[in-house]
Amino acid sequence: MFGGIILTFSLVLEMAPDSGWFMYTPLSSSEYSPGLGSDFWLLGITFVEISALSAGVELVVSILRTRTQGMALHKMPLFAWYILAMAMMIVVGFPPLILGSVLLELERAVGMPFSTSPAVVTPFFGSTCFGCLAILRCTLFSYRGRVLFPH
């Protein structure tokens, strides 16, 4: 909730982020997007990620500890398995996101060069992955069906 308050407070103060929703590192550095808008966004997103991680840990612990006596994992209901799998994905996937947003904020606030060194991967790596798939002519799941029947 604290992260949402920070994000909303930045809109009230008219300091919305101006480096796009994707926050690619060279474009979101303080050189290309000056001002406090991106800092508000990074702090808010970091707190939202931390709260999601704590909720994921709480769900995993709750599901594993509050089963009835003698109930094995394979006898749990399907909904409990769904929530457990989702919470495990949050627990595994969110620490790198938290680290990335903290490092980007440290780069913006203190000037630590995490993404400005020449050894850093191109910021459009996520965009070029799909371009590589198109060049290699790899088919994705239901790609042909979506091309033939787009709606």
TrEMBL record:
Natural source organism: Vreelandella sulfidaeris
Record-annotated Cytochrome oxidase subunit I profile domain positions: 1-145
Lineage: Bacteria, Pseudomonadati, Pseudomonadota, Gammaproteobacteria, Oceanospirillales
Family per similarity comment: Belongs to the heme-copper respiratory oxidase family.
GO biological process terms held by the UniProt record: aerobic respiration; electron transport coupled proton transport; respiratory electron transport chain
Keywords: Copper, Electron transport, Heme, Iron, Membrane, Metal-binding, Respiratory chain, Transmembrane, Transmembrane helix, Transport
Entry-linked InterPro entries: Cyt_c_oxase-like_su1_dom, Cyt_c_oxase-like_su1_sf, Cyt_C_Oxase_1
Protein name according to UniProt: Cytochrome oxidase subunit I profile domain-containing protein
Keyword Electron transport: yes
Database matches in PANTHER family: CYTOCHROME BO(3) UBIQUINOL OXIDASE SUBUNIT 1 (PTHR10422:SF35), CYTOCHROME C OXIDASE SUBUNIT 1 (PTHR10422)
Entry keyword Metal-binding: yes
GO molecular function: cytochrome-c oxidase activity; heme binding; metal ion binding
This protein's GO CC annotations: membrane
Transmembrane segments: 40-66, 78-104, 124-143
